[in-house]
Amino acid sequence: MHNLATASPFGRLFILLFIAWRNIWRNPVRSVLTIAALAGGLIMVILYASLLEGMTRQMVQYATEVSTGHLQTHRQAFMDDQDLYATLPWPYLERIERDFPAIHIAPRLYAAGLASSTATSTGVLIKAVDPEREAEVTTMLSHVRSGEVNLGIADTTATGLVRYNVVVGAQLAKNMKLIPGSELVLVTQAADGSIGNNLYRVAAVLRPLEPNFDRMGVLLSIEAYRQLMYLDSGFHELAIKLDDIDALSGVQAALDAEMLTLQVEHPLDKLGGMAVVRNWRQLTPAISDMLQLSRSMLVLIGLIVVGLASLGMLNTMLMAVHERTHEFGILLCLGMKRRWLLLMVLLESFFLALVSAVVGSMLGTLLARYLEEHGIDFSASMPDGYDWAGMVFEPVMKGYLEPGQIVEACLLMFVVTFFASLIPAWRTVRLKPAEVLR
Amino acid sequence: MIREFSRYGMVWTVALFILAAVAQPAQAMQVEELIHHIDELWRGETSQANMTMTVKTRRYERSMTLEAWSRGKEYSLVVIRDPVKDRGIATLKVIGNIWNYLPKINRVTKVPSSMMSGSWMGSHFTNDDLVKESTYEDDYNSSISFEGERSGKLIYEISSLPKPDAAVVWGKVVMEIDQQTLAPYHSRYYDEEGALIRTLSFDRNKVIDGHAVPMRLSLQPEDKPDESTVILYQNIKFGVSLEAGFFSLQNLQKRR
Asked: How many CB pairs under 8 A join A and B?
C-alpha cells in the first residue's frame, strides 16, 4: 500500500495492472470459463461477419461480373416496356469504343418469343450477344453446365435452312427437356410485323445465373437474331465493364456526356426516348439495398452475441467482487482510494476481455480461414445453388475474412464488457468498510 | 377472325331476325331466347372465307391475305396466303388449343396457355380471341339496355355482363345492332373496372343468304388511338361441308 500511495501515476497504474492480473487467476476455472464464453461469442461474430462478407462479395461479383457489368446503357422506352424498336444505333458502339479505350463494352439485343421443342412450347426471352465482346465484359458464357458454348452456325438442313446454335438457361432446359444437340424452334413477331421463325440447335445449357434468365433465357448470336427479327437499326443494351471499379462514377458521367453528344450527331427517333446510363447499383437496387441491410444486421447480431457473452462476465465479476467484500473493506481501511479500487475492478474485466479477444480472434481467424478455403457445402441438398434476393448463389457458402472486421468485433466486445463491468465496479465503490468488516 | 365475324355478324343477325318474327313476350324472355338462339345457331355453323387483314401500328402497316374455315365454335383454321414471306403459315384451333404451322421450317408448334393473351399474327387480336370457348348463354347475363334511335339509326343495344364464375376476360360487352338490317354496328369491350379497352366496329354490309353481313371489322384498341387492325372480307360462304377431320394437324401440314 505504501508503494501504491507514493508511486508516480504510471507506476501506480502498473501496480494496479499487476494486482488485477493476479486477481483474475485467483480462481482460474471461473476465469477460463468466462474467457471461453467471451471468446466463443467473438468467434461467432467473426464467422458470421466472414460468411456475410463472403456472400456480399459473391453478390457484388454476380451482380456485375456474371451478366450485368458495371454500367449499362438503354433507351428510355426499352427500360419502360422493352420496346423492340428502342435501339441505340450501331455507330454509337464504335464511337464509345473509340472514345473510351479503358472500358470493355458488349452490345445486346432482346426479344420475346415462343420456343418449342418436340415435347412442349413455352414463352422465352431471346437474348442476342456478341460472344467475343461479351467474354470481355461478363462471365455469362463461361457458366456452362453441359455442352460447349458456340453461337455460330450449327448446320444446314436438307431444305437449305441454316440452323444456328443457341444456349439456354438451366431451368428452361429442364422444363423443355433440352440437352446439347436438341432442336429448338423459335417463333416471334419480327420487327417488320411478319412471323419470325427458325430452327436452332441447342449447343449448351448454362448454370443458374439469375432466375429470369434461367427460366426463360435463350441466347443466340446477333447475326442469328437479325435473321429472326429483321431488326438492323441497332442494339438494345450496352453492358460496360471498367478495369478500375473506383472510376465508376467518373466514367458514368463521361458516358452520359458522350451520349448527349452522340444524340446530337446521330439523332434518335422520338418514340424510343433518350439514352440512359445506369450503374450496377441502379440496375440491381435489390442487391445494393441488401448490402446496406447486411451491414446493419452484422452490427445488431454482433451486439446480441457479445451482449449475451458479457452476461457471463458480469456474473463472474459480481461473484469475484462479492467474495472479496471483506478484503476490499480492509484495503479501504488501509487507505486505498476508492477510485483505485474502481480502476482495479475495471482492469480485471479488461484483462478478461483482452484474453478473450486474443483467444477469440486467433481461433476465429483460423476457423474463418478454413471457411474461406472450404466453405460450407450445400451441394448435396441444393446442387443448383440457392436463390436469394433475385440472385443465384453457388451451393458452397464461402467466407471472406476482412481483418478490419476482427478489429471491429474486438472493439465491440471491449465496449460491451466495459459497460457490463461498471455494475460490479460500482458496487465496490459503494462499500462501507465499517459494515463489511463487522 | 371467322369466329369474331360469325359471332357478331351472322349469328346475331339470324337470332334477332327469328326473335323479331315471334310474338312479343316480356323483355327478359326476349333476351333469354335471343341468347339461346345465338349460341345454338352458331354452334352448328360452318363457313369458308377469304379476307384481308391490315394491321397498323406506330411502327409499321402491313396487309395479309387470309383464307379461313370454321366449324362450330370448336374448330377453325386460318392460312396466310400473302405476303410471300409469311405464305402458308397456318393457325389451327381445335377445342381450346391453338397450333401454328410454319412452312419455312416445316414444324407445328403449340401455343401454350401462357401465350393466349399474346398477339395473333401481329394483329391487335389475341390468341384468346381465336379460341375463347365462352358462350353468351353460359357465361354472360345479357339484356337489352337500349332500344330506339341513336345517331339517326334505330338500334338495339345489348349489354352482356359475365356471370360471377365465368372464365372470361371482359367486365362487360356492349353491342349496338341495327333494328332494320339486324347487322351490328359496334361491340365495345370493357374491363372489370368499367374502362373501355377496345371497340370492334362493323360496316360494309352485304346480303348473304338473306342476311345483312358486315364485310369489314375494325378493331381499335383504346390505349393506342393511332393503331388498329382491320379485317375486310372478300367473300364468305356459310354451310359449306367441312368434316371435323379437316381441322387436324395432318391437314395443317398438308395445306401449305
From this structure: 62
